[in-house]
Amino acid sequence: MIGAHTGLNEKVLAYRPSDPPVEEIRPPKDRAFFADLEKRSLLSAVTKVKHLTPYIGTELQGVQLSQLDEKQKNELALLVAERGVVFFRDQDLTLEGQHEFTKHFGIVDLIHLSFYGRLDIDIPLFSKTGTLTKSIHVIAFAEFHSDHSFEINPPSYTLLRMVKTPEYGGDTIWTSQTALFDKLSPTFQKTFEGLHGVHSSEHTYINTINRGGTTFRLPVRREHPLVRTHPVTKQKALFYNPAFVIHIAELKGFEALHTLNFLREHLHSADDLTVRWQWEAGSIALWDNRVAVHRAVPGGYNTEEREGKRTAVYGEKPFYDPSSKTLSEWQAERNQNEVPVIKTELDGF
Ligand SMILES: [Fe+2]
């Protein structure tokens, strides 16, 4: 259920978070703006480019992230923006190396990612000089979400490195919000383009306190465009996730409820727009949290056997540009420029 929590009780009401609210920040120019559109430098360094599905997810083989130069990292940023998530296996990145690598993509988000309690993903916290100070644990969310979407500046490039993992179980699924928007009818697209999702951290705040965890700030409720423009690709994407979006600002209560139910069904039935990744120790996923939602597949494994390290950078404040393009329009434009494209078909119901 959207926004379900374990109870607004006296313990929650008496809780006093230590940190003040976060102000808006202006992140530096997205590194993907500096990339060669053909990504020649990055692609010449890999042994294989394996697209895992038509719409989302590419695995790059035969390359170590620790060895990439600035140019290749910029091209990787563009590839992540276009493919939603890019995967690697058998990586030699250390924790400090991961922090250094992440810094290339912007301002590492330390405050926001220190928001939660416990469980099977570590958020390493670094001091300003880059020294590891402590780690906290967060719950691997079983419902689709984009990380911290309720913040003013939700993360953009986000990296999860798996340190240990059970033999099976604990996979992660990503779904393309760009393709989800593209699959809607033009009428629904037009309707959603003017709306704003209301993102809330209230239920996670309450749940964290009731589970005995630590949360550093008071909960927030924030409106973001329901259809968002990617600043680099200029593609339109839904900016919806059932874990944090509790209302649609412009709609009446039941209008919003049924619209959110539709969006959740649209998302959960989108097997064709989805990639499922089975982790191994040393695997890395680098995703664009602005255009891909994800979920941990729950159950059937011991969470003690799963340990990952996540780092992320601040994204821009989400915005909608009416002149931006659907995925189909973007692909058609590329086609004119004779770059191979994947055909998109609009589904009927
Ligand atoms: Fe997540």
TrEMBL record:
<dbReference type="Pfam" id="PF02668">
    <property type="entry name" value="TauD"/>
</dbReference>
<protein>
    <submittedName>
        <fullName>Alpha-ketoglutarate-dependent sulfonate dioxygenase, putative</fullName>
    </submittedName>
</protein>
<dbReference type="GO" id="GO:0016706">
    <property type="term" value="F:2-oxoglutarate-dependent dioxygenase activity"/>
</dbReference>
<dbReference type="InterPro" id="IPR051323">
    <property type="entry name" value="AtsK-like"/>
</dbReference>
<keyword id="KW-0560">Oxidoreductase</keyword>
<dbReference type="GO" id="GO:0046872">
    <property type="term" value="F:metal ion binding"/>
</dbReference>
<dbReference type="InterPro" id="IPR042098">
    <property type="entry name" value="TauD-like_sf"/>
</dbReference>
<keyword id="KW-0479">Metal-binding</keyword>
<dbReference type="InterPro" id="IPR003819">
    <property type="entry name" value="TauD/TfdA-like"/>
</dbReference>
<keyword id="KW-0223">Dioxygenase</keyword>
<feature type="domain" description="TauD/TfdA-like">
    <location>
        <begin position="49"/>
        <end position="311"/>
    </location>
</feature>
<comment type="similarity">
    <text>Belongs to the TfdA dioxygenase family.</text>
</comment>
<keyword id="KW-0408">Iron</keyword>
<dbReference type="GO" id="GO:0005737">
    <property type="term" value="C:cytoplasm"/>
</dbReference>
